[in-house]
């Protein structure tokens, strides 16, 4: 389907949020991703003009679909940055099984690295709209506060909702007085002593996702209690 760029905004250092107006009704489940094809992009390379991105808005927001991405020097990203508001794109093929379980909403641990926060934003916005009875802890790892997308929104959600706990770790921020460790077995055992009863969702760069997954398995968490989503840079 055709879509039009409604707005573009840098929401954190190097992170671009784009809202699209869609031409017809679109259905998706929080955590899924969509394919976008640029029409007459100003920059072209061998990677082509189509990529997929996680949806960050809630299904309750009708008529739009939103994405957030790390800005890079690829032709696709340079084109996306350069294309003005009002530009047409093609959106289709919504996929993905990195979605909330139908139950166990009080056992969930989200682990996000960098731009891997995007599926969790869609999920949390959806749960807030639905007023679901959930209990979720989000571990959010970044280099520093400036590069942490949706940080203010998450901090506000924690303040107003006792069912949501936010654990931040910034490993390269001189102004941060909180947690700075990488997410390893000591980190997870400190925050989640009853970790074997939890369900873990891990989202972020492949190296981070693989590392946390292996750590959880070595700690004795069963494989079926771990869901993973890799974010590749392009």
From TrEMBL:
<dbReference type="InterPro" id="IPR001433">
    <property type="entry name" value="OxRdtase_FAD/NAD-bd"/>
</dbReference>
<keyword id="KW-0285">Flavoprotein</keyword>
<keyword id="KW-0560">Oxidoreductase</keyword>
<dbReference type="InterPro" id="IPR017938">
    <property type="entry name" value="Riboflavin_synthase-like_b-brl"/>
</dbReference>
<keyword id="KW-0001">2Fe-2S</keyword>
<keyword id="KW-0479">Metal-binding</keyword>
<dbReference type="GO" id="GO:0046872">
    <property type="term" value="F:metal ion binding"/>
</dbReference>
<keyword id="KW-0411">Iron-sulfur</keyword>
<dbReference type="InterPro" id="IPR039261">
    <property type="entry name" value="FNR_nucleotide-bd"/>
</dbReference>
<protein>
    <recommendedName>
        <fullName>FAD-binding FR-type domain-containing protein</fullName>
    </recommendedName>
</protein>
<dbReference type="GO" id="GO:0050660">
    <property type="term" value="F:flavin adenine dinucleotide binding"/>
</dbReference>
<keyword id="KW-0812">Transmembrane</keyword>
<dbReference type="GO" id="GO:0051537">
    <property type="term" value="F:2 iron, 2 sulfur cluster binding"/>
</dbReference>
<feature type="domain" description="FAD-binding FR-type">
    <location>
        <begin position="1"/>
        <end position="101"/>
    </location>
</feature>
<dbReference type="InterPro" id="IPR050415">
    <property type="entry name" value="MRET"/>
</dbReference>
<keyword id="KW-0472">Membrane</keyword>
<keyword id="KW-0274">FAD</keyword>
<keyword id="KW-0408">Iron</keyword>
<dbReference type="Pfam" id="PF00175">
    <property type="entry name" value="NAD_binding_1"/>
</dbReference>
<dbReference type="GO" id="GO:0016491">
    <property type="term" value="F:oxidoreductase activity"/>
</dbReference>
<dbReference type="InterPro" id="IPR017927">
    <property type="entry name" value="FAD-bd_FR_type"/>
</dbReference>
<keyword id="KW-1133">Transmembrane helix</keyword>
<feature type="transmembrane region" description="Helical">
    <location>
        <begin position="107"/>
        <end position="127"/>
    </location>
</feature>
């Amino acid at each position: 389907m055709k879509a039009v760029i409604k707005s573009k905004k840098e929401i954190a250092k190097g992170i671009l949020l784009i809202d699209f107006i869609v031409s017809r009704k679109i259905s998706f489940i929080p955590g899924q991703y969509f394919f976008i094809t640029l029409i007459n992009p100003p920059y072209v390379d061998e990677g082509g003009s189509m990529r997929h991105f996680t949806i960050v808005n809630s299904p309750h927001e009708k008529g739009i679909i939103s994405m957030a991405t790390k800005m890079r020097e690829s032709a696709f990203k340079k084109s996306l940055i350069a294309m003005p508001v009002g530009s047409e794109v093609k959106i289709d093929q919504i996929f993905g099984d990195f979605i909330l379980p139908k139950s166990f909403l009080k056992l969930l641990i989200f682990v996000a690295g960098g731009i891997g926060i995007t599926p969790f934003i869609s999920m949390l916005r959806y749960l807030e709209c639905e007023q679901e009875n959930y209990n979720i802890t989000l571990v959010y790892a970044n280099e520093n506060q400036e590069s942490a997308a949706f940080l203010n929104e998450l901090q506000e959600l924690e303040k107003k909702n006792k069912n949501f706990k936010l654990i931040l770790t910034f490993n390269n921020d001189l102004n941060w007085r909180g947690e700075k460790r990488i997410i390893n077995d000591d980190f997870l055992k400190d925050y989640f002593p009853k970790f074997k009863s939890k369900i873990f969702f891990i989202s972020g760069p492949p190296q981070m996702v693989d590392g946390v997954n292996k750590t959880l398995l070595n700690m004795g968490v069963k494989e079926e209690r771990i869901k993973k989503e890799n974010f590749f840079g392009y």
